[in-house]
Write a structure and sequence with these properties.
Helices cover 30% and strands 23% of the residues. The protein contains 14 helices and 19 strands. Helix 3 (111-124) packs across helix 12 (328-348) and helix 6 runs parallel beside helix 7 (220-228). It binds adenosine-5'-triphosphate and magnesium ion. Magnesium ion is lined by residues 111-112, 135, 140, 213.
């Protein structure tokens, strides 16, 4: 075996935990040079914000040093040059790799606070980041962060974005004299036009992540916005009220319509914890987390506490993750940011494996895994396994439908995807579709 191959073989033991494949077959190893006992190579990650960057570097050094002929190992870490799907769309966005939309059904749930802190969390890991405030009625970016200068000008036909602490910023509030007051008279279509001009007409340069702070709601304006530019992933912010579950589902559905995967739900102001490690008070009741997991297979739900400092920091123009980088709050944002980065990386490498769900008369519901394995499920069993409110009492957990109620010949009339992790089945019996996380179907199949 050549020395090159020995090195590559050795490196193959390192598996990317999110993508589930080794770093050699993922094509991460570049510029491998061997000179006697000296080995050098570059590990090119999918994003500079890669959460396992340091671990990869140490492991690469360790496994290559273990080869008997190796004396020195130099491992350089780099990130893939931004490849943008947006080239053809607009010159301003041509070098933006990922657009992450932060959205909420209602106003005032902390969407902008989350968007800004998340953006700065990503920036702290070395990623190039921008924030676009898509809310023309109540632009909040100008109050949340104070840019280095507030002079907006054009260069080569594009608007030069403002900047604060190394993150690029644009908001309607920066280009209108009274922070967006003029928007009050604008109607829907005009709003989208203005936002479009501002978003695609800004010279964002090379960015790993552009965070979009969408206006609250799931109406036409939001839907149009999500169609204007190819959004990589969506994050939904909510608060724990009785209706929040329905709100989140509405949000997921809106993004489904435009084929944007929702990668995280942040339940903001979920609880208040006066003492570190002390009791957590659920001020607004139980949130949507449990139901999202049970009914949508949606594991990526974060509960974010009420933290008075979060509001204070935002008021003085410095996001809390910068002002107080060692705080619990900054750590929580770190977790959320890490998760978003991982989910996006999985999406790009097609590592989100979903079974295909279909129906064949005589066989039943067919679950086909990525490796071709097929499972046949009895439609009656699948119908019984529904965890929706029309089947299971939400409070007591009691089953509302008996097996004998279900017609023997029940079959799907429509099968569709919901969000990233679930499938919806409209049955020949009953009006309300059932929603199944893939995990629930796999469990039924005994996987
Ligand atoms: N976890 C938190 N703890 C304490 N205060 C918070 C928290 N999250 C947000 N806030 C405060 O709540 C208020 C509303 O937050 P924010 O402006 O981010 O909401 P929004 O959803 O963007 O609202 P809008 O619909 O107006 O755009 C702000 O004063 C903010 O500082
Ligand atoms: Mg806002």
């Amino acid at each position: 075996m050549s020395k090159e191959n020995e090195v590559l073989e050795a490196l193959k033991v390192i598996i990317d935990p999110d993508l589930g494949r080794d770093i050699v077959s993922l094509g991460f190893i570049k510029d491998l040079h061997i000179d006697g006992g000296n080995v050098s190579f570059v590990v090119e990650l999918t994003t500079p914000a890669c959460p396992v960057k340091d671990r990869f570097q140490t492991e690469c050094e360790r496994v290559v040093s273990a080869l008997p002929w190796v004396e020195n190992v130099t491992v350089l870490m780099s990130a893939q040059k931004t490849k943008s799907p947006l080239q053809a769309q607009s010159p301003g966005l041509s070098r933006v790799a990922n657009i992450v939309a932060v959205s909420s059904c209602k106003g005032g749930v902390g969407k902008s606070t989350m968007a800004v802190n998340l953006a700065y969390t990503l920036a702290k890991t070395g990623a190039k980041v921008g924030i676009f405030d898509a809310d023309v009625y109540g632009p909040s970016l100008p109050t949340l962060v104070h840019p280095d200068t507030d002079e907006v000008y054009q260069q080569n036909g594009l608007i030069v974005p403002l900047e604060a602490h190394g993150v690029k910023l644009m908001s309607f509030g920066f280009v209108t004299p009274r922070g967006g007051e003029g928007a009050a008279i604008m109607r829907g279509p005009m709003v989208t036009q203005v936002i479009n001009q501002l978003l695609t007409g800004t010279d964002w340069g090379e960015l790993d992540y552009l965070v979009l702070d969408l206006p609250p709601g799931t109406g036409d304006v939001q839907l149009t916005l999500t169609q204007l530019v190819p959004i990589t992933a969506a994050i939904i912010v909510t608060t724990p009220q009785h209706l929040s579950f329905i709100d989140v589902v509405k949000g997921i559905q809106m993004f489904d319509k435009v084929k944007v995967p929702t990668v995280a739900v942040i339940e903001n102001m979920s609880y208040f914890q006066p003492e570190p490690d002390g009791e957590k008070y659920k001020l607004f009741g139980e949130g949507a987390r449990k139901k999202l997991i049970e009914q949508y297979g949606f594991q990526n739900t974060f509960e974010f506490p009420v933290v008075p400092r979060v509001a204070e920091m935002c008021d003085n123009g410095t996001p809390v993750v910068l002002e107080d980088p060692d705080s619990d709050t900054a750590r929580t944002f770190g977790e959320i940011g890490g998760m978003v980065v991982r989910e996006i990386s999985k999406l790009k490498h097609g590592a989100v494996e979903k079974p295909q769900v279909s129906f064949t008369a005589g066989r039943g519901i067919i679950l086909t895994l990525a490796d071709g394995t097929e499972y046949e499920l009895d439609p009656v069993d699948v119908r019984m396994a529904c965890r929706g409110a029309h089947t299971v009492d939400e409070l007591t957990g009691e089953q509302k439908i008996k097996r004998e109620d279900i017609p023997k010949n029940i079959h799907p009339t429509a099968i569709g995807k919901v969000g990233n992790y679930a499938v919806s089945i409209q049955w020949s019996w009953g009006n309300v579709p059932s929603i199944y996380p893939y995990e629930a179907l796999l469990a039924l199949a005994g996987e």
